[in-house]
Structures are given as structure tokens and as C-alpha cells.
């Protein structure tokens, strides 16, 4: 018996009507150019619900060239192929779609590109000038658009990435597979892109192709799935390697410098510095102490969130994890520190990533809801007293200064949008938590009929389930809500003490405006437009304070800068101390949190 040289894998999901004919055609085609017993055909049956497993088992029993590889669970397109390739015997590994849309006359060229010509990867193409492919518009337009995006964004030299007609050298594939993260429809594309990036020889050749069955744009698979994977791969290959600690710190510093330089266009920096220089240092120091007191409250609140999700941890450790993550948000762009916290509690306490991100989402929702309510209550008071008209005038006119008002308008608009979103999120979470319906499956089912939708729904269900656990627990909801109110009250008190350091009396009016300014400023900086929200916070704070109190623009921005600086300094000091205590490197945490697949099986062991 000749050793098997070529293994052909047929990925099959509910193919009872066609699988027997496909296997027969495949064997006949292989026999036309390969020695007898030099090949095998593997039916990679991926959790089918029809008679495909029975048929595949029968075929394997009748012909020793046929093997049946079964999976009880849906592995996805890429996962099923990897599972089957791992059990294949051949050195040349081939797969093609079981609908035989690609003309089988090309199979010899596909196999020999690896077996004879020495290529590492070979793929058929429906988009080369020489080929004949009958592409209806509903297939051709999305395919052309997708392949154009891949070539442009991921810098691929190939014209067709999704043609289900590929072959691989076993050694090359075994080296590439650990680098491929997707297990579904993007698997082909990611493998081809990374093969090119790593210097493997890839052959693309034209094939005759006739579409089989119906095809339509699937929102979940094509937009959510494939689109997000293109962006994820672009980040992994082109952006992430360039984001060193030095680059991140440099970019963050540059953004802050630019923001400060822009301020000089509508403010006299000497006046601002003079106002800041007049602040009593001992009272500024007191504001830092008061702000530091709020941090254990953050740890206690986070403990309550995790307890409701089934994880019991000490509040001291959790306070340290929060310090580290918030320090990461000050240093790195795009709120990378949020992922750092999930990494820390996973690495140090084995809390799964989905639960880590869900607990963070709960905390963020409560933060946003609390500061939205604080701002809303004060806004009602301002409307009752008629002061809201002054704010509206400041935002639409020049009473505060054109550029300052423009900055304030942007910040207040962002704050308003975030506030509305926060309220909407809480209403949706509470409503879904009290409903017996599986809203996630229902919504995704309306958008997609593809198997990828099951995968997406499972990920979202795990995440939403953890969030809903807190929303459905009345006592936990109350404790976390009270904790949030205390935390943000301390945040406002810190700003009020800074006002006192600047020599202002804390009148009821100033206290009310202070609550409003701090709340809106924090809502404005939720979007990661600058590291630590520098600029948006000051803009919102200044336009509100300067328009509603006797405090001048220069003094208002001085208070905002000192208030924000005090909070950032306390955060950084706490973050550095926590990193030393927990033996966590911030840069390593960011790298690990970005490279680790956050979607993993969840256990409470």
C-alpha cells in the first residue's frame, strides 16, 4: 500500500442531499492523476443535524480511501477544517466546497502546485482575467468589494481570498495555523494574508466557477463578522507592532501639548498661569487627599459587582486593579486600560475575560447613569431658576469667547449623547433581565441566518448574561448604585475644594454649578478622543462655570486644569504603587490583553 500523499477535506454541514455525489466525484477526479491509495477523502462533518453523519459513516465503511471526521459541536468553517487537517495523513492538504462550484478539472493543478511545484499555499481565483466565473450581481458586487478591502487594508497581492478551493503544504500550514485567530468565514482570508506576510510561496490561478444555491448579503457574517475581522487583522499586523511604550507616551504627550497650544488662541496663558499660581497649595493638597479616599469605594463597588456574578475577591486587590487600568487609560490611546483590568483579574485571580469585560461594562453603565442623573438634577434646578438660559446663550453666542464656546459646545454635545445612551442602556438591560425571552438570539436571528450568527449570539449572550445578573439582583443593584453615587460625589467635592483653593466661596449656587460642570465634563471625556479626556473635560467645565457663575474664563479653566491634574496625579501614583504591589507591567498587560482571545470558554472553578 502506497503511503497517503494527498488528503482532501470536504467541510460538510447538513449536506445529506449532495455529500455522496461529491465524494464520488472527488475520488474519480483524484484517481485520474494520482496513484491508487496515494490519497484519502475526509468528510469533515461539523455538528450536522440531518443524515450527513450516517451517510459519511456508511461511505467510510465501504471504501478505505474515505474517512469520516465528526464533531458534536459546531466548530465553524475554519475550526472544522483545522480539526480535520490535524487528523489527515497526507503531506499535501486540500479542501474545497462540497457544492463543487469550482470546476473539478482544476483539482490536478491545485494539488500539483503543492505536491510537484513546491508552493506552500495554492488557491483558486474567480477574479483573474483568464478565468470564467458566472457571478450574478448579488454575488459579484459583495465579493469584489470584500476582496478590494482586503487588498487595500491588509496589503494582499491576491485577487480572490474566499474561493473555496485551496491546498497547503503540511509543514507550512502547521506553522501558520497558530497565527490564525478566526475559526469561521474569515479563516481563509487571514491564512492567505499571513502566509504572504511571512514569506510563504502562494500560487493563485484562475478557475472556472459556477455558483450553486442562493446567496445574499448577511449582516452578521459579512458586516459584523468579516468587516470586524479585517479591522482586527489590520490592527494586529500594521498598528499594534508600532505601538510601543515610547510611541504611546509620545502621542499622548503631543495631543496634550496641541490642546494646550490651541487654548492660547482664545486665552491669555499668562492670565491662566497667574490664576493657577494664586491657588493655595495646602488646599490643593487637601483636594488630592479627598479624591484618594474615593478609590477604596471604587474597589468595594467593583467587589459587589463581581460577587453578584459569582466571583469573590478582596476589595484591596480590586482597588489596585482599577488603579492600574485607569493609569493605562491616561497613558495609552483608545482606553486600552480597560482591557488591562480584564487582563489583571484574569492573570492574578483567574476570572475569565468575558466576565472581566462584562463587570467593566456594568461599572461603566453605573458611572454614566450616576453622572447623568447628577447633571440632570442640577439641569432641572437651573431651568427652574432661569439660569439655563445663560448656559444656552454661552453655547450659542460669544459671551464666553468664540473658541471657548465652540469647545464647550462640542463637549456638551458629546456629554448629552453619552448621557442619553447611558439611560437607554440601563433601561434595555433591566428590561431584558426581567424578560424570559432570549432577546439576543431573537435580534441576531432577524439579521442573519448564517451559522456564524450562532457564534456571535453565544459571545454576546455570555457578555449580556453577566451584565443582566447584576441588573436582576435588587440588592446588588442598590449597593452598586449607592457606591456609584458616593464615588462621584467625592469627585465633585474634589473640584469644589479646588475652587476654594482659588479663593472662591462655596456658595449654594457655585456648589450646584460645580456638580453640573464636573458631571458634564466627565460625560464629555467618555469618548477616547484624547488620553485621559484632556481638553474635553476642561472645555465643558469652563463654558459651564464661566457662563453660570461670576468666575471668569481664565479662572474657570485654571480650576478645571488643576482639578483634572489632581485627579490624574492621584491616579498615576496609585497606579504605579499598585503595579509594584501586584507585580504587573503596564505595557506587558496592554500587549497581553490585545493578543489574547477574549472570547474563551467561561468557568467559575
Automatic annotation (TrEMBL):
Keyword Methyltransferase: no
Cellular location(s): Cell membrane
Keyword tags: Cell membrane, Glycosyltransferase, Membrane, Transferase, Transmembrane, Transmembrane helix
Limits of the Glycosyltransferase 2-like domain: 7-176
Domain of life: Archaea
Topology in membrane: Multi-pass membrane protein
Family: Belongs to the glycosyltransferase 2 family.
TM helices/strands, residue ranges: 247-267, 273-293, 365-388, 408-431, 539-562, 568-586
Species for this entry: Haloarcula argentinensis
Protein name (record): Flippase-like domain-containing protein
InterPro entries for this protein: DPG_synthase, Glyco_trans_2-like, L-PG_synthase/AglD, Nucleotide-diphossugar_trans
A Pfam family matched in the record: LPG_synthase_TM
Amino acid at each position: 500500500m502506497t503511503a497517503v500523499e494527498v488528503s482532501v477535506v470536504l467541510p460538510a454541514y447538513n449536506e445529506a442531499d449532495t455529500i455522496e455525489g461529491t465524494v464520488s466525484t472527488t475520488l474519480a477526479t483524484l484517481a485520474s492523476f494520482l496513484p491508487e491509495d496515494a490519497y484519502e477523502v475526509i468528510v469533515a462533518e461539523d455538528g450536522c443535524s440531518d443524515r450527513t453523519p450516517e451517510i459519511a459513516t456508511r461511505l467510510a465503511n465501504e471504501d478505505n480511501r474515505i474517512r469520516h471526521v465528526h464533531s458534536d459541536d459546531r466548530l465553524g468553517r475554519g475550526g472544522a477544517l483545522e480539526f480535520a487537517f490535524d487528523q489527515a495523513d497526507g503531506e499535501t492538504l486540500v479542501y474545497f466546497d462540497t457544492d463543487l462550484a469550482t470546476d473539478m478539472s482544476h483539482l490536478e493543478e491545485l494539488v500539483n502546485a503543492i505536491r510537484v511545484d513546491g508552493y506552500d499555499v495554492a488557491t483558486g481565483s474567480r477574479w483573474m482575467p483568464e478565468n470564467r466565473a458566472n457571478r450574478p450581481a448579488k454575488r459579484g458586487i459583495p465579493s469584489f468589494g470584500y476582496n478590494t478591502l482586503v487588498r487595500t487594508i491588509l496589503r494582499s497581492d491576491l485577487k480572490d481570498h474566499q474561493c473555496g478551493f485551496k491546498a497547503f503544504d503540511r509543514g507550512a500550514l502547521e506553522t501558520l495555523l497558530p497565527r490564525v485567530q478566526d475559526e469561521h468565514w474569515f479563516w481563509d482570508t487571514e491564512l492567505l494574508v499571513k502566509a504572504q506576510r511571512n514569506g510563504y510561496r502562494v500560487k493563485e490561478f484562475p478557475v472556472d466557477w459556477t455558483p450553486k444555491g442562493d446567496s445574499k448579503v448577511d449582516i452578521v457574517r459579512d458586516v459584523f463578522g468579516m468587516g470586524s475581522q479585517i479591522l482586527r487583522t489590520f490592527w494586529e499586523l500594521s498598528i499594534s507592532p508600532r505601538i510601543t511604550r515610547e510611541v504611546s507616551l509620545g502621542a499622548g504627550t503631543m495631543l496634550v501639548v496641541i490642546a494646550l497650544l490651541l487654548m492660547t488662541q482664545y486665552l491669555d496663558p499668562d492670565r491662566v498661569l497667574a490664576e493657577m499660581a494664586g491657588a493655595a497649595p495646602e488646599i490643593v493638597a487637601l483636594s488630592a487627599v479627598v479624591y484618594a479616599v474615593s478609590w477604596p469605594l471604587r474597589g468595594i463597588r467593583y467587589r459587589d459587582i463581581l460577587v453578584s456574578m459569582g466571583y469573590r475577591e478582596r476589595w484591596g486587590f480590586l482597588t489596585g486593579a482599577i488603579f492600574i487600568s485607569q493609569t493605562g487609560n491616561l497613558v495609552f490611546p483608545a482606553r486600552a486600560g480597560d482591557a488591562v483590568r480584564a487582563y489583571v483579574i484574569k492573570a492574578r485571580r483567574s476570572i475569565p475575560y468575558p466576565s472581566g469585560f462584562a463587570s467593566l461594562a456594568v461599572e461603566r453603565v453605573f458611572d454614566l447613569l450616576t453622572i447623568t442623573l447628577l447633571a440632570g438634577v442640577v439641569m432641572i434646578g437651573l431651568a427652574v431658576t432661569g439660569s439655563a438660559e445663560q448656559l444656552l446663550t454661552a453655547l450659542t453666542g460669544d459671551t464666553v469667547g468664540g473658541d471657548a464656546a465652540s469647545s464647550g459646545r462640542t463637549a456638551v454635545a458629546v456629554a448629552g449623547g453619552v448621557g442619553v445612551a447611558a439611560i437607554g442602556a440601563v433601561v434595555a438591560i433591566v428590561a431584558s433581565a426581567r424578560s424570559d425571552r432570549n432577546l439576543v438570539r431573537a435580534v441576531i436571528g432577524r439579521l442573519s441566518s448564517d451559522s456564524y450568527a450562532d457564534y456571535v449570539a453565544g459571545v454576546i449572550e455570555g457578555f449580556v448574561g453577566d451584565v443582566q445578573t447584576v441588573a436582576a439582583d435588587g440588592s446588588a443593584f442598590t449597593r452598586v448604585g449607592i457606591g456609584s453615587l458616593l464615588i462621584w460625589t467625592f469627585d465633585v467635592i474634589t473640584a469644589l475644594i479646588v475652587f476654594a483653593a482659588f479663593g472662591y466661596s462655596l456658595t449654594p449656587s457655585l456648589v450646584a454649578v460645580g456638580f453640573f460642570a464636573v458631571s458634564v465634563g466627565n460625560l464629555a471625556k467618555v469618548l477616547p478622543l484624547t488620553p485621559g479626556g484632556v481638553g474635553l473635560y476642561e472645555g465643558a467645565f469652563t463654558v459651564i462655570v464661566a457662563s453660570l457663575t461670576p468666575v471668569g474664563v481664565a479662572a474657570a479653566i485654571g480650576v478645571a486644569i488643576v482639578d483634572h491634574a489632581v485627579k490624574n496625579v492621584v491616579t498615576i501614583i496609585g497606579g504605579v504603587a499598585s503595579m509594584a504591589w501586584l507585580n504587573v507591567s503596564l505595557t506587558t498587560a496592554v500587549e497581553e490583553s490585545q493578543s489574547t482571545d477574549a472570547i474563551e470558554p467561561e468557568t467559575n472553578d
